[in-house]
Amino acid sequence: MPKFLKLLLTLSAIAFLGACADEKHYPISGEECSADDPVQDLDASIADCTPSV
Predict the structure, then answer these.
(1) Domain range annotation of the chain
(2) Measuring CA to CA, which residue among 22, 19, 18 is closest to residue 30?
(3) What is the average pLDDT across 1-14?
(4) pTM, full prediction
(5) CA 23 – CA 9 distance, rounded (Å)
(6) pLDDT of residue 9
(7) How would you label 28-40 residue by residue, b for 16+ Cβ within 10 Å and e otherwise?
(8) Cα(17)–Cα(26) distance, rounded to whole angstroms?
């Protein structure tokens, strides 16, 4: 596959994926995000996830 075609496919994939990024709506439900949403107060350090290996 020519290098130009690989570059073109890569750039178009990035453009399509970037177009899906909407920070004002939740990705699955499509509901609008707001400042008083309960998920804004979540603290990721609460989760205690230790590897079992």
Answers:
(1) 3-46
(2) 22
(3) 88
(4) 0.37
(5) 25
(6) 92
(7) eeeeeeeeeeeee
(8) 16
Between CA 32 and CA 26 the distance in angstroms is 6
Token reading at 3: 């290098």
Q: Give yes or no for a contact between 26 and 33, defined as CB atoms under 8 angstroms apart.
A: yes
Could you please report the per-residue DSSP string of the chain? --HHHHHHHHHHHHHHHHHT--TTB-TTT-PBP-TT-GGGG--GGG-------
**Interval 9-47: pLDDT, tens:** 998 888 777 666 677 777 677 788 887 887 777 776 766
pLDDT band at 6 (very low <50, low <70, confident <90, very high): very high
